[in-house]
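Supplementary Methods, section 5.1.

A reviewer requested that the exact input to the structure prediction be made available. We therefore reproduce it here, unchanged from the version used in the analyses.
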Amino acid sequence: MKFKLFFLFFFLIYPSFLYSHEDHYNKIKSIEMDVLRNGKKIGYNKYFFTAENNFFIVKNELNFVANIIGLDLLSIDGSSTETYKNGKLVKYKSRTTQNKKKKYNDLFFDEKNKIYKIKGSSFTGTAPSNVVIGNWWNHNILQSNTIISPLSGSLKYQEVYFLSKEIIKIENSFYDTSRFKIVLKKNIGDKKKEEFNVWLDDKSKIILKVSYSKFGDWEYIVKTVEKLN
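The structure derived from this sequence is encoded token-by-token as follows.
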């Protein structure tokens, strides 16, 4: 009940979240985020946006290498393409190399049965139509209780909590943000969980920063937002 009440409160405070992706991103060409571990930049996460007729396409490039005493703790090099039609995700494809292992996720929306069909390196099966791909460009990740791994297609369950209003500084600019916590689990009821802090820009509705702890302190921080002329 607490979780449901939170989402009711969330929609009352942020009704603009109900709009399609185009409403917030049709004037943006790209978003680049720095990937940091323990305060040191180790890579990047770049998103490129294209709107064509009823289609909205997001291409992603992700690359980073985390080292401990000269050894690779985690290395990722990947790319993906999300395709939306009239604001609805209809197709997704990703190819990733993680620590020299190949991962993939091929997804499409079954219009007849109103479900997603997934063929991934960690999961093959179906998912309900309200799930969201777990990429950090998409503020709708704060709405769904189920997300799909962008790398491998596996399903994860989450709870989202509003924490506070905060002013954060990135480079030389200050932003009014809403801070949320995402609690992520492989299965509902699992004790093992991952926790993410997310700072959402109140004005642009762009996720400006994400932080979490796993073998170190990680941050994804927006470096540049390129707008269309």
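The chain has two helices and 15 strands. These observations are discussed further in the main text.
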